[in-house]
Design goal:
mainly alpha
């Protein structure tokens, strides 16, 4: 029986292909545990902490196993940097390999790849938009804060 608060117990569980869902919050934030989980099931990323959903190493490993891990990746990883684009490239390669195994040499292969790639494009567009909105909100808060400080400074001089 797995002790969901014990790192070794949970590591053994996920190494055998077990789920991360019941692990303690502390272990869902443990990079070693989550890396091992996503190596066996990329979609286990959805059970990881927000911090690890934003960790490039963890997300890259998850996407190598299953491109659908992109659904759980943090929006901040969709900021257009070359390093982060590597994650998307691996997801696309993963789709081609998965589809080739199932449908190679058929018209269905091309159709399935196109549908899966369309899904990735939708994920990227949505996450990129959320990232941009988040950055705009951060900038607005910064501007408001600076304006408040400026107004406080003017009030003292009067």
């Amino acid at each position: 029986m797995t002790d969901w608060n014990d790192k070794q117990s949970v590591l053994e569980h996920v190494k055998k292909g077990g789920t991360l869902i019941f692990a303690s919050e502390e272990l869902k934030n443990d990079k070693d545990v989550v890396l091992e989980a996503v190596k066996n099931d990329g979609e286990a990323l959805r059970f990881a902490s927000k911090e690890l959903q934003n960790d490039k190493d963890v997300v890259l490993e998850a996407v190598k196993q299953n491109w659908r891990a992109l659904y759980s990746a943090s929006e901040e990883l969709f900021n257009g940097s070359d390093e982060n684009n590597k994650i998307i490239d691996i997801a696309l390669e993963n789709i081609k390999n998965q589809m080739r195994k199932k449908y190679d040499g058929t018209k269905e292969y091309i159709q399935k790849c196109a549908k899966e790639i369309e899904k990735i494009n939708d994920i990227i567009a949505e996450k990129t938009e959320k990232y941009k909105e988040s950055e705009q909100e951060k900038q607005q808060v910064k501007n408001d804060f600076e304006k408040t400080l400026e107004n406080l400074g003017k009030g003292k001089g009067e």
